[in-house]
Structure formats: structure tokens, C-alpha cells
């Protein structure tokens, strides 16, 4: 059996394991024949002089049936193969999806080399060709090979590049998705452009990029369930970080007045279209700032990222919908918008019993309910789905925001906003709590909740309090999910924005 005909197409995406095994056996035999002939199936060096995109850029306007006199050596993956007597054709694809035709002819390479091409080259192989750049009679840019070599022998067949991969394959075998689907490659480039844009914006505002621990002796900086591990070297229990906040604040205490970090967080919680247990997070802190300035910075970060990917503040999502990230974004008060949407006056003084009664009537289940948690759940029920434009939702309950400063003029709330885009929370910003005495009180309250079984409650962190007692200047802080930022710009689900998402 052979896995290409005279005009080969990629393997069917629904091949059975037995069929894959059969094709794999054929390809392994070709690998052995290559090695037995003295050639290499995976050479360490090739005489590459150009990339496929560079050749296309240089000769892309070549007229049909023309020669250039220029010799190049390129390598790419074989994604189409047609063998016809004295002349064989292959489409070679580079990593960015650019393709060029390779023409292997009896006149140029000789009978033995041509027969080896027909016998040994399969779809999916990486192949090196060296020869003159020409244009075929149909006007297709080509390389008329004078020599060729296998650059890497593919042992398994490719999926059908003319059929869409199912989501399971795209996520579990992202490398196939990258080979087969231009959108998958575009997503990776979009993410790189976003990260570069974020760093450029921070640099323009004199921020320093720093790195903080991912393994921590005490988890903190957010309300979330951590992953737990064990250090053999220190014989102690450690936690994968749920947020970098408490270490970034230590940096501000130390005099690094504007700092940010882009790195991974880990939360041992559910996974859905907007949540992943492992995700990329941006956090930033600015001495002598507050939540208003952090909102301005966040809007600039997002809008610059949209420009970097789309060339406009109006982005086009994967389903063709346009979404406007431009202009000045809306602001809402959590309590005022909740009162208006529910038709019931709700303030920081509204009792827990009243809030619980309303939640019960709406059949809302709230784990470890407090007045603050009930307000937030009720707000999500009544208001969240109605937000269309990018919106800062401000002034949260004190008890759900243990690291945030009390509002300067509104009793019972803190200076915190959450940014909602596309109906999900994209970012959050604080006027940071820097008073170590009040911070200790908040930690004690959180510890009491933890003792009652709230696994997301924060722990009392003495080392952080010690740092805070050395004096942290008034500061603003913000955090934003990088994956969610890509979701806002591209319209994709979170598993499509992460190159290799965690799957069960």
C-alpha cells in the first residue's frame, strides 16, 4: 500500500486507527529505505538560502511561463502532491501558510532521483528543494528543482486539508490546526501582536516589567481556589499562584513605582467558554495613582491592542460581527444600576436577609452568601446581560473586595471597577488598600470566612502585611486576562485564544 496516488490528497480526517497504523507502517518503511540508501530522514543541516514568503515577495509578480535565472534553496511541508510521469509537482507550505510549487522533472534531476521522489515523498513530509525560480504555464510561482532532499519524514498522515477539523482535534492536536487552518495561525499572531502592544504601551508610561513567583507558600491576591503541590526540597506545601498581586505590591513598597507582569495564573475551578484553569494574566500597579487613572490606562491598553491586531478600534469577530472598542467607555454604579434594573432600592445598607429573600425569589444559589456576594450575584442577574458597549462597573461592596481602599465619599463601597466587554468581565481596577491596619482587619474577616468553609476566601498573609507596614504609597492597580482580551478582539472562545489549552 502507498498513501499517495498520482494526484494525492491529504488523509481523511476520519481515518480509523487501523488505517493510520497501516499508513504509518508504509511511511516507516520509506524511512528505513532512506537510511539504508545513505540519505538522512532528519538531516541536521540543509542548504537553505531563502524562505517561501521571501521568494513570493521577491517574485510574486512574475508573468506566466517565465524564468528568472535566480536559484534558491527553500524548505517546506508537502501539502499537495501530484506525480505524472516525467514531471512531479508538490505544494510546499511554510510556517506562516505561504506556499510555493516545487517541480521535480526527469530533465533536471535525472531518472534515479525522480523515482526516489515518487517512492519516498509523502504528504506531510518536510522537503528541501533547490533550483531556479520560474512561473508555470498557468502562472503559478514555482521552483524547478535541480536537487531535493527529505528534510523531515512524517510518519503519520495529515488530516484532509480541504475539510474543516472538528473542535476536539483543533484543541487536542493544535499542531494540526496550525498546519491546516489559516485562522489558527492568525490567532497566534494576533496574540503576539497584543502582547507586543501591551508592552509598548507600558513602556510609553515608564512601567517596568517584572516577574514574581508562581510557586507560593501562601496563595493570595484574589478570591479563588488554588492548586496545591509539594516541594520535596523544602518539604512544604506550596500553591500555584492565583494572582501576582501581593508580590507586585511588595515591589511598589520597595520603590518600583510603576510595575507590571504578564504571566500565568492557575485557579482550581471550573472551565467553560470564558474560564480556563491555567490562563495568562496582566497586572499593573502605579504609585500615586488610583482607580480612575487605571481605568484610563486600561482603555488605552485595550484600544492600542485592537489597533495592533485589526488596524482599527472597530474589530471584526470570527462570526463577522463588528464591535466598537473606540471612544470613551461607559461607567455604571453597581448599586444604582442594580436598583434601577430590579425596581427595588438596593444600597450598601440593605440587609443580608432582604437580599437573600430577593435571591430566593429569583432562585439564585449563592455559595457562602454575604450581603456583598448577594449584591454581586443579583447585579449579574439583572444587569450584566444588558451591557453592550465596553463598560466600567464601579463601586463594589466592601466585604467582597478585601484588597481595595474604601470609597473616598460613598460609605459601604470600595474604589473598584470591573470592565465588561462582550458580556464578560475583561479587567478589574482598584484604588489599592495600603493601610496595613485595615488590611489586617480585612484578612482576619477573610480567614473567618475560610474557617466556615469558603475555599475561595483569602488567608492572613503575615509576610505581605510586614511589607505593607514599611509603607506603600497610595496606588492604583489593574488586572486583565490576556486570553479574554483576545476574546474581546477576535470574538473567539477562550480555548481558541490559548495555543495549547488544558483539556480533560
Automatic annotation (TrEMBL):
<feature type="binding site">
    <location>
        <position position="425"/>
    </location>
    <ligand>
        <name>Mg(2+) 1</name>
    </ligand>
</feature>
<keyword id="KW-0547">Nucleotide-binding</keyword>
<keyword id="KW-0648">Protein biosynthesis</keyword>
<keyword id="KW-0067">ATP-binding</keyword>
<keyword id="KW-0479">Metal-binding</keyword>
<dbReference type="InterPro" id="IPR006195">
    <property type="entry name" value="aa-tRNA-synth_II"/>
</dbReference>
<dbReference type="InterPro" id="IPR044136">
    <property type="entry name" value="Lys-tRNA-ligase_II_N"/>
</dbReference>
<dbReference type="Pfam" id="PF01336">
    <property type="entry name" value="tRNA_anti-codon"/>
</dbReference>
<dbReference type="InterPro" id="IPR018149">
    <property type="entry name" value="Lys-tRNA-synth_II_C"/>
</dbReference>
<feature type="compositionally biased region" description="Acidic residues">
    <location>
        <begin position="9"/>
        <end position="20"/>
    </location>
</feature>
<feature type="domain" description="Aminoacyl-transfer RNA synthetases class-II family profile">
    <location>
        <begin position="191"/>
        <end position="501"/>
    </location>
</feature>
<dbReference type="InterPro" id="IPR012340">
    <property type="entry name" value="NA-bd_OB-fold"/>
</dbReference>
<feature type="binding site">
    <location>
        <position position="425"/>
    </location>
    <ligand>
        <name>Mg(2+) 2</name>
    </ligand>
</feature>
<dbReference type="GO" id="GO:0000049">
    <property type="term" value="F:tRNA binding"/>
</dbReference>
<dbReference type="GO" id="GO:0005829">
    <property type="term" value="C:cytosol"/>
</dbReference>
<dbReference type="InterPro" id="IPR045864">
    <property type="entry name" value="aa-tRNA-synth_II/BPL/LPL"/>
</dbReference>
<comment type="similarity">
    <text>Belongs to the class-II aminoacyl-tRNA synthetase family.</text>
</comment>
<dbReference type="GO" id="GO:0006430">
    <property type="term" value="P:lysyl-tRNA aminoacylation"/>
</dbReference>
<feature type="region of interest" description="Disordered">
    <location>
        <begin position="1"/>
        <end position="23"/>
    </location>
</feature>
<dbReference type="InterPro" id="IPR004365">
    <property type="entry name" value="NA-bd_OB_tRNA"/>
</dbReference>
<dbReference type="InterPro" id="IPR004364">
    <property type="entry name" value="Aa-tRNA-synt_II"/>
</dbReference>
<dbReference type="InterPro" id="IPR002313">
    <property type="entry name" value="Lys-tRNA-ligase_II"/>
</dbReference>
<keyword id="KW-0963">Cytoplasm</keyword>
<dbReference type="GO" id="GO:0000287">
    <property type="term" value="F:magnesium ion binding"/>
</dbReference>
<keyword id="KW-0460">Magnesium</keyword>
<dbReference type="GO" id="GO:0004824">
    <property type="term" value="F:lysine-tRNA ligase activity"/>
</dbReference>
<dbReference type="Pfam" id="PF00152">
    <property type="entry name" value="tRNA-synt_2"/>
</dbReference>
<keyword id="KW-0436">Ligase</keyword>
<keyword id="KW-0030">Aminoacyl-tRNA synthetase</keyword>
<comment type="subunit">
    <text>Homodimer.</text>
</comment>
<dbReference type="GO" id="GO:0005524">
    <property type="term" value="F:ATP binding"/>
</dbReference>
<feature type="binding site">
    <location>
        <position position="418"/>
    </location>
    <ligand>
        <name>Mg(2+) 1</name>
    </ligand>
</feature>
<protein>
    <recommendedName>
        <fullName>Lysine--tRNA ligase</fullName>
        <ecNumber>6.1.1.6</ecNumber>
    </recommendedName>
</protein>
Amino acid at each position: 500500500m502507498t498513501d499517495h496516488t498520482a494526484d494525492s490528497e491529504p488523509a481523511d480526517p476520519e481515518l480509523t486507527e487501523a488505517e493510520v497504523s497501516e499508513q504509518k507502517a508504509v511511511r516507516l518503511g520509506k524511512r528505513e529505505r532512506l537510511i539504508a540508501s545513505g540519505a538522512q530522514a532528519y538531516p541536521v543541516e540543509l542548504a537553505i538560502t531563502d524562505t517561501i514568503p521571501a521568494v513570493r515577495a521577491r517574485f510574486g509578480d512574475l508573468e506566466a511561463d517565465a524564468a528568472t535565472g535566480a536559484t534558491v534553496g527553500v524548505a517546506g511541508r508537502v501539502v499537495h502532491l501530484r506525480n505524472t510521469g516525467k514531471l512531479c509537482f508538490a505544494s510546499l507550505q511554510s510556517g506562516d501558510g505561504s506556499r510555493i510549487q516545487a517541480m521535480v522533472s526527469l530533465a533536471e534531476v535525472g531518472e534515479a532521483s525522480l523515482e526516489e521522489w515518487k517512492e519516498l515523498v509523502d504528504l506531510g513530509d518536510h522537503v528541501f528543494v533547490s533550483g531556479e525560480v520560474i512561473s508555470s504555464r498557468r502562472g503559478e510561482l514555482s521552483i524547478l528543482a535541480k536537487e531535493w532532499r527529505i528534510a523531515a519524514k512524517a510518519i503519520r498522515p495529515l488530516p484532509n486539508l480541504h475539510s474543516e477539523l472538528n473542535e476536539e482535534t483543533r484543541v487536542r492536536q493544535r499542531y494540526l490546526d496550525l498546519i491546516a487552518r489559516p485562522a489558527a495561525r492568525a490567532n497566534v499572531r494576533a496574540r503576539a501582536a497584543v502582547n507586543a502592544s501591551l508592552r509598548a504601551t507600558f513602556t510609553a508610561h515608564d512601567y517596568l516589567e517584572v516577574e514574581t513567583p508562581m510557586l507560593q507558600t501562601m496563595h493570595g491576591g484574589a478570591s479563588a481556589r488554588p492548586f496545591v503541590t509539594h516541594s520535596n526540597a523544602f518539604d512544604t506545601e506550596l500553591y500555584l499562584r492565583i494572582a501576582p498581586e501581593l508580590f507586585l505590591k511588595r515591589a511598589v513598597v520597595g520603590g518600583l513605582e510603576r510595575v507590571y507582569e504578564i504571566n500565568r495564573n492557575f485557579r482550581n475551578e471550573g472551565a467553560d467558554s470564558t474560564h480556563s484553569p491555567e490562563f495568562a494574566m496582566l497586572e499593573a500597579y502605579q504609585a500615586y495613582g488610583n482607580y480612575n487613572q487605571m481605568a484610563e490606562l486600561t482603555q488605552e491598553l485595550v484600544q492600542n491592542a485592537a489597533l495592533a491586531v485589526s488596524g482599527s478600534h472597530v474589530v471584526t469577530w470570527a462570526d463577522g460581527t463588528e464591535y466598537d472598542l473606540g471612544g470613551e467607555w461607559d461607567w455604571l454604579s453597581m448599586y444604582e444600576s442594580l436598583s434601577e434594573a430590579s425596581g427595588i432600592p438596593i444600597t450598601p445598607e440593605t440587609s443580608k436577609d432582604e437580599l437573600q429573600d430577593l435571591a430566593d425569589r429569583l432562585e439564585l444559589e449563592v455559595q457562602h452568601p454575604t450581603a456583598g456576594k448577594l449584591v454581586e450575584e443579583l447585579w449579574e442577574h439583572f444587569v450584566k446581560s444588558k451591557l453592550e458597549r465596553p463598560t466600567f462597573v464601579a463601586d463594589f461592596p466592601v466585604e467582597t473586595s478585601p484588597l481595595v481602599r474604601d470609597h473616598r465619599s460613598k460609605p459601604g463601597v470600595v474604589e473598584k471597577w470591573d470592565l465588561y466587554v462582550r458580556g464578560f468581565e475583561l479587567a478589574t481596577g482598584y484604588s489599592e488598600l495600603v493601610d496595613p491596619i485595615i488590611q489586617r482587619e480585612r484578612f482576619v474577616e477573610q480567614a473567618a470566612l475560610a474557617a466556615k468553609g469558603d475555599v475561595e476566601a483569602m488567608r492572613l498573609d503575615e509576610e505581605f502585611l510586614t511589607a505593607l507596614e514599611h509603607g506603600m504609597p497610595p496606588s492604583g492597580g489593574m488586572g486583565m486576562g490576556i486570553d479574554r482580551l483576545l476574546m474581546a478582539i477576535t470574538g473567539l472562545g477562550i480555548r481558541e485564544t490559548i495555543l495549547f489549552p488544558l483539556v480533560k
